[in-house]
Each structure stands twice: as C-alpha cells, then as structure tokens.
Design goal:
Among the domains are: 128 residues, Methylamine Dehydrogenase, Chain H, CATH 2.130.10; 101 residues, Immunoglobulin-like, CATH 2.60.40.10; 107 residues, no CATH class; 73 residues, Arc Repressor Mutant, subunit A (Orthogonal Bundle), CATH 1.10.10. By secondary structure, the protein is an alpha+beta fold. The chain has a five-stranded antiparallel beta sheet with strand order 1-34-33-32-31, with no helix packed on it. Strands 59-65-64-61-62 form a five-stranded mixed beta sheet, with no helix packed on it. A four-stranded antiparallel beta sheet has the order 2-29-28-27.
C-alpha cells in the first residue's frame, strides 16, 4: 500500500504533454480554391517588385499581392520551372521553354524560345530548372542544358543525368546523379574535386551560402562546400533531413537556411546558434511536402504539394498555435522564469522547452491566472487553485474566480470577484489560506479595484457599477452606492481599472475618472485619444489598447509621446472578443491571448522594423472601364462617357502581406477612405478630370508616398464640343425665331388690339347711336303720347262743350247761331287729320306694326287698327273715347269685337297682347 501512494501521486500530478513546437513566425495559407489552379507548384520566383510567379500544373500562376491570375501555355502543358529576370518571366515545361512579358494592358503574353534551336530534337524532355547567371539563362532538363543569350541558344549534352544546377559567383554548377559535381567553363563541364563524400549520393538541391555553397542530397543530408573542402552539416539537422527527405534549399541570410522536405515541411536552421525551427502541417503549413521555395525581403514563399504558403520570418510577432484544438481558447496567461502558464476554457497548461503540457485536475474553464508572491493563483469555473510548477492545489470551493486584487496596506489579504460576490483570502505564516465571503455583495463581480483600504469598487459582468464601504475587518458592506445611467452613459458592460492610484472607468467607449474629493465622475482627458478602445494591459508606464470596432487595431503607448499601432490581419482574426489580455514577459516582450494559443510581440524589434522599413508605394496593376482594359502607363487615361458607368482599377504592394490602402479621389466628385484590398471601383462618376491618389498603409498606420493616377471621363455626346456648337447655333436660331415669333406675336397683338379698339369704338358708337335712337324714340314716344293726350283732351273738351250746349240749347235765342256754333265744334273734332298725324308718328316708332297685324289678322279694319294702336300705347278706355269720338260703351264694344278678331280669350289682357306684338 505504501508503494501505491507515490505511484498514485505521480499519476495525478504528472502533466500530459500535448505538442512540441517553437514560437513561430506568421504563416499565411493560400489555398487551391483561392488561386484557382492546381495544387502542385513545382517552382516559385519573385520579381523585384515582390510579385510571385508559380510553375503550376495548369500554367504560370501570378500573384501581384491582390489577385491571383493563371496564364496557360498555348499547348496547356504543365509548367515545371519559373524564373523572373528583369521584366520577363521564363518558364519551362514539356519540350518547351520561353518567356512571358506584359503587354500594354498588363496581360502576360508568351514567347517561345524553342524556335531558336536548330539541329536538335527533344526527347521527352521536361525543364525542371531555370537559372539566370551573368547575361545568360540556363534551362535544365534531366539530359541537357540549354544556354540562352542574345537570341541564340547553345546546347550542352552531358554524358550523365543532370539532377540539379546552381549559379555561384556567375558560374553554373552541375550535379550528376550518383556521380559528382561539375562546373560549366566555356560551355564545357569540368569536374569539381569534392572528395569521395558525395559518391553514390543523389544531389537534389544546391544554393550559394556564405563564401561557398550548400549541397543537398536526397537521402544523405546536406553539406557545405567552401575553400575546396566539403563539410557535412550538424548531425542534429542532418538526421532530420535524412529522415524527412530533403528536397529544396534556400539561403535566407548569412547564418540562416531553409530546408524544404518531402515529409515534414520546412526546417529553419541557424548555423551560428545551431537552432532549429520546424514549420509543418502541425504548426501551420498546409501540408508537409515542399516542392519549391523563394525568398523576398524577409518572407519565404513555399510551393507545396497542395497550396502555397507565405512565411514572414522576421516578423516581430510570433505565434504559439495549438492546431489540435485541445488547448481551446486562451483566457489568461502568466510567465515565470522559463515557464509560461496558460488558462483556457479547457484547463491549465504550461509551456516548457517548447512543449505544451496539460496540468491534471485543472480541466474546466479558467478565468484568471495571477502571480501572488511565489504562487500562481487560478480562478476556475469550479473553484480557486494554487499552482506550484505543475502541482495543483484547491484552496477554495467558491465557483467562478474572475480576478484577484491585493488589499492596500496588507501583504497577505486579497479579494476575489466570483460568480456569487466577493471572496476574501487571507494567508497565515504557514502559507495556509482562510477564505470567507463578504456580506452584502450577492451578485457576480468580474472586476475589482481599491480606492483605499476600505473602499472597494466592483463591476458586474454584464450590468452595473458599484462602490462599497467595508468594515474594518473586510467582512461586510457598510455603505453601498450604485452608479446609474444618470452618471454614466451606459450601465451595461462597464469596465473598471485602477491606474496610477486612480479609479478609471470605461462606459460606452468613453473614459472617466473618479474624484474622491468631490465624489464625482468626470471624463479622463489623458485617455481621450483612446476612446472606443479597451485596455489589455496597464502598469502605469506601459499601456496596451485594442480598438472596440471591427478593425481590432492594437495600440501600445507610454503616454509620453511613444505610440505604436498594430494592424496585423492574422493577429486581429485570432483575438477573443472582450477577453483580450496582455502580460509583460520582460522589458520588450509581451504575450497576448488568442483563440487557439497566444502571440508574442517583440516590442523592441517592432520599433526597429517600423523605424527602418520603407513603406512601398502601390503599383497600378490594371485600369479598365465598362468595355475595355486600358494600357498601363503613366499618362492620363481617357474614358468615353458610355463606358464610364463602371470604372475599375487595381493597385498592389506585393512586398506587404495583406496591405491596407488609403485612397483619395479628387475631381467633380470627391471620395476618400481606407480599403483592405487594392481593387477599387467607382460607378456613375460625373464627367471631368479626376486624380486618384493611393497610398499603402503600414502596420502602424503610416502612409507611403501616394501613387497618383489621372483619368478623364469624356462628356456625353450631348455635351461634346460639336454638340455645344450645335447647341449654340440652335440657341441663336431659337433666339432669332423667338424674336421673329415675338415680333409676329406683337404685330398680331397690335392688330388684335387695334381691331378690339375699333370694335370697342364701334360698339361705343353703336351704343351712343342706340342711346341716341332710344332717346329719340323715347322723345317721339313722349311726343306721341303728349300729342295724343292733347288731342284727346281737346276732343274731350269739345265734346263736353257740345254736350253742355246741347243741354242749354234752349238758352240760345238764336237757333242759327247755335247750329253754327255746333258745326264749328264738330269741325274742331277733325278725326281724320288727328289720326293721320298720330299714324305718322306711330309708324316712326313702331315700323311695320300695322303691316304685321294685317298680315297675321287680315280681317282687321282701319278702325280696328286705330284701336290696336291706342291699346299698344297702353291707353285706357276712357282715354280712347275722345280719340275715337265714341262713347265708353262704344269703345268697349269695339274692344270686344277686336278680341274676337284677334282670337284672344277673356283670360288674356288685350292691351298686353298688343304691346308685346311686334
């Protein structure tokens, strides 16, 4: 039983090794579906601008930093080799080699060189290497060398199988299979004395290095040949190369070499430090078979069995990545001596000697790792543990330890925010812990800060900010204050920090500080430039912020003028939202939690790189409109208006990995902004001249010298010069026509007005004539009436005298005198004369009246007409009597008879009828 106890302890506390790897540079994978070609890339070459060219199974692959383009050979054969020389890209394939060159629109066109060969027939040859040296280009198949110079080709026919060639000091070295090494001198092969070490070895790769060159064999490792001596590489690296089958060699610097293998990716070997780093499928490469490699600046391009990878070997940011998924998401980490501890959602791990080890018993979600004196405290989902190297000890059953803070003025008392409130930890002299929970705090607390030894600030994980006064023993809350929306703009997701003995709060992206003298929060002006950024690390002198927006930009500052911004795509993509945390490893090294491991940032190296790195200006790759691609040139582009509805252009900076761009479009329409890619398009721009300025943006947001592009959108046809001239002529014509029209209109208006005036004059004259006539008629009517009435009065008076004389007849003694007087009275009543005068006046007023009556009523007598005339004048019976010299009875009888002749019944007024009759 005694023997079993130590065995059980070893089982319980022994760490589980998960993986072994170094901190590695960033690796960027370009998958087959991204570049849309075949998986195998047999050769890679980079030109002076940093553009990549790949010898792919489907053709020549070109990457300008923004876009992949596949260029196929006329015979569509596999391209086995590629070399960029000046502005030409040489390729070799099956029984074919030649070069590619961009045409005026930026498209690569192929020119074959095999037509220069005479008196030679290919025998199933494929060209696996292209090496420029001096003014020549060497093309290698397994059986022959072809040397191209000034439009001529020399053919070298070795008597052995050629497995590799290399250019060293403008000389061509030629390797034979299972034989020896040769040098090409004046088109003749001369053997190189390397001793017997290379006999029966197959040389598959060679590269210049230091003052000699490296010789790589297929199964027997690598050798360095210099000063006439052949020396094998260190046994440690050679064993790996033998085991995993060396395939390609690339000299990176004077001390560093990249070895590409068939079975295990790339080995980065430092000849000075004897250090080895392995990049393989487990550490980020797409697969382990390396078919080709190329270098540009501090980047390695690797052509793999299935895909292409890009490695930034001098990046100040390196990564530890757990590709197995066992680690999970890293939430916190600490570093002690040479060991880094990681707390993740799956447990606690430690990294020692490049191996990641799991600590048994720690499985579960880890929120917090803190170094407390010589112990590491782990706030866990289920409890709180102390950690001594790899030994785990549970010290508290309280679930969900978020954060440890030391109580001011105390070396052995700590508080911890938990799922259920705040826990108090006190350690005695025997290193034993006593734990209790503070009364009065019964909600989750994620962040804690002390204002003083008795005043505690606490932030809820989701909603709320609180300030507590504690009793002397830190056991209970004696005063509580909650800050609501009237004090801070947003009570959700409040963040709390203690910086330089000040309580600092972030709410809704805005920074505030608490003033204990006036007991109020006010904006924290020192952090104003960092609004909308969260703190990942702060020690009073060094600060790390992360942008809360989509960019996830990381900013380091000392608040004394030194500020560095980091925009690194891979880093931003792997951060854990709201769980970003930085720890300081030493003066210049910082560690950052990631979703699948952690990153190490070498701040000093980053500062050097940014200070010494030239930011290249973007290069115009193409310019096209709706219908066509334009010639890539420095002069201005002109675009017809119909083709201007969609304008596209592409700028690229191949030397930068995933560069950002800043562009400004100036012209009739102005636009500006940042872009994560160099392909820009604009729709429906107004016509006119534009200047496009594009700058590449470095990691720290500095801009390069802008590349400027001038283009002009021609006006639409209806705004062209001829059209404008036509418009002017038309305008002049219209003006003349308008003037003529206005003149005609004015003339017509004058005529119309004249006619109107004449008409009005005539109407006025007619009216005056009418009024005059009416006046005359009224006068005649009045005269007729007066005359008629005068006659009537006269006749009435005569009749009265006659009647009076008749009554007094007997009073006249002289009868003859009586008769004479009576005759005179009768003669005074001259009815015919009176009627003629009346008739004449009546006819002047009522022309054709009698004719119309007779025409309609022909039976009317002259006496009837006379009565009709009197009735038309609206004379009464009494007034008619003296005019007709008859009695009233006689007039009424005559009226009755007239009514009969006119056919008028008794209901109709006779006078009204005759008055209305025309």
């Amino acid at each position: 039983m005694r023997c079993l106890i130590p065995i059980l302890c070893l089982i319980l506390f022994a760490p589980l090794g998960l993986s072994g790897q170094n901190l590695l540079p960033p690796i960027y994978n370009y998958r087959v579906f991204e570049y849309n070609a075949a998986g195998q890339n047999w050769g890679l070459s980079v030109n002076a601008h940093g553009e990549l060219f790949g010898a792919n199974d489907k053709g020549l692959l070109h990457f300008n930093g923004e876009e992949w383009v596949l260029n196929k050979l006329p015979n569509a054969t596999i391209i086995r080799s590629v070399a960029s020389v000046d502005d030409k890209i040489y390729t070799g394939s099956y029984e074919e080699f030649g070069y590619w060159k961009k045409n005026r629109t930026g498209v690569f066109e192929y020119t074959s060189l095999t037509q220069l060969i005479t008196d030679h027939t290919f025998t199933n040859e494929e060209f696996w290497q292209i090496i420029p040296y001096g003014d020549k280009i060497a093309f290698r198949s397994f059986s022959t060398l072809y040397l191209y110079e000034e439009d001529s080709i020399n053919i070298i026919n070795p008597e052995f199988v050629v497995t590799n060639i290399a250019a060293v000091d403008n000389k061509i070295l030629v390797a034979s299979k299972s034989d020896r090494l040769y040098e090409l001198v004046e088109n003749k092969l001369q053997p190189i004395d390397t001793g017997s070490d290379l006999e029966s070895f197959t040389i598959i790769s060679m590269a210049p290095f230091q003052d000699g060159f490296i010789i790589g064999t297929q199964l027997n490792g690598a050798f360095l040949y210099r000063m006439g001596e052949l020396e094998p590489f260190d046994e440690k690296i050679n064993q790996l190369l033998k085991q995993h089958q060396l395939n390609k060699i690339l000299a990176i610097s004077s001390n560093e070499i990249a070895f590409g293998t068939i079975k295990n990716g790339i080995y980065l070997y430092n000849t000075k430090k004897k250090s080895i780093k392995n990049l393989n499928r487990a550490t980020g490469l797409q697969n382990n078979t390396v078919l080709s490699m190329a270098k540009f600046d501090n980047q390695i391009w690797a052509g793999l069995e299935n895909g292409i990878d890009r490695i930034d070997i001098e990046s100040p940011i390196s990564y530890f990545t757990d590709y197995s998924g066992s680690l999970g998401t890293t939430h916190d980490l600490v570093h002690t001596d040479s060991i880094t501890y990681l707390g993740s959602n799956t447990g606690i791990y430690y990294l020692n000697n490049d191996f990641l080890n799991f600590i048994n018993g720690s499985q579960g979600h880890v929120w917090d790792l803190e170094i407390i004196d010589n112990d590491i405290m782990a706030g866990h989902n289920t409890a709180t543990f102390s950690l001594d190297e790899s030994r785990l000890k549970k010290i508290s059953q309280i679930a969900g330890g978020y954060q440890f803070v030391r109580v001011p003025e105390s070396s052995a008392t700590f508080l911890q925010g938990t799922y259920t409130g705040v826990a108090k930890y006190k350690r005695d002299n025997d290193n034993n812990w006593s734990i209790s929970e503070i009364n009065g705090i019964d909600f989750p607390v994620k962040q804690l800060c002390f204002e003083d030894a008795r005043t505690l600030w606490a932030a809820h994980p989701y909603k709320g900010l609180f300030r507590f006064k504690l009793d002397e023993n830190l056991t209970s809350v004696v005063e509580k204050k909650e800050f609501g929306s009237e004090v801070i703009p947003n009570i959700y997701q409040v963040k709390l920090y203690e910086i330089k003995n000040q309580i600092i709060i972030q709410s809704d992206g805005i920074w505030y500080k608490y003033d204990p003298i006036i007991a109020e929060l006010s904006t924290f002006d020192e952090f104003k430039p960092y609004n909308q950024k969260s703190i990942m690390y702060a020690d009073g002198e060094h600060f790390w912020f992360i942008d809360n927006g989509a960019s996830k930009e990381i900013t380091y500052t000392d608040l004394k003028g030194q500020t560095i911004s980091i925009n690194e795509g891979q880093l931003s993509e792997r951060l854990v939202p709201d769980m970003e945390r930085v720890i300081r490893k030493n003066d210049s090294i910082y560690l950052l939690t990631l979703s699948d491991g952690f990153a190490q940032i070498n701040l000093a190296k980053l500062q050097r790189n940014l200070a010494n790195t030239h930011i290249p200006s973007p290069k115009l790759s193409f310019f096209k409109d709706m219908e066509q691609a334009h010639t890539v040139r420095d002069s201005a582009f002109e675009i017809s208006y119909p083709n201007s509805s969609d304008i596209g252009m592409q700028f690229s900076v191949p030397s930068l990995i995933k560069p950002r761009y800043y562009y400004e479009l100036a012209g009739p329409m102005n636009k500006e902004g940042y872009s994560d890619h160099g392909t820009l398009s604009f729709q429906n721009l107004p016509h006119g001249e534009y200047t496009m300025s594009v700058s590449s943006v470095s990691m720290d947001n500095k801009k390069s010298t802008p590349t400027k592009l001038v283009f002009e959108i021609a006006p639409p046809w209806y705004l062209s010069t001829l059209s404008i001239m036509a418009y002017l002529l038309a305008l002049v014509g219209i003006i003349l026509l308008v003037r003529m029209y206005n003149r005609q209109k004015l003339k017509k208006k004058h005529e119309t007005l004249k006619i109107k005036l004449e008409r009005e004059q005539d109407e006025r004259m007619a009216k005056l004539e009418k009024e005059k006539l009416e006046k005359e008629i009224r006068g005649k009517q009045n005269e007729l009436a007066r005359t008629t009435m005068s006659v009537a009065k006269k006749n009435e008076l005569i009749l009265e005298l006659k009647d009076l004389m008749l009554v007094n007849k007997d009073a006249f003694p002289n009868k003859s005198r009586y008769r004479s007087l009576t005759k005179k009275l009768d003669s005074s009543i001259n009815e015919d004369e009176d009627w003629k005068q009346f008739e004449m006046n009546f006819k002047e007023l009522h022309n054709d009246y009698f004719e119309n009556l007779l025409k309609q009523y022909p039976k009317l007598t002259p006496k009837d007409l006379k009565l009709c005339a009197y009735l038309k004048m609206n004379l009464s019976t009494k007034e008619i009597v003296p005019l007709m010299a008859i009695t009233v009875r006689g007039v009424e009888i005559h009226r009755y008879r007239l009514r009969k002749k006119l056919g008028i019944d008794s209901s109709q007024n006779l006078s009204s009828f005759l008055i209305k009759f025309k």
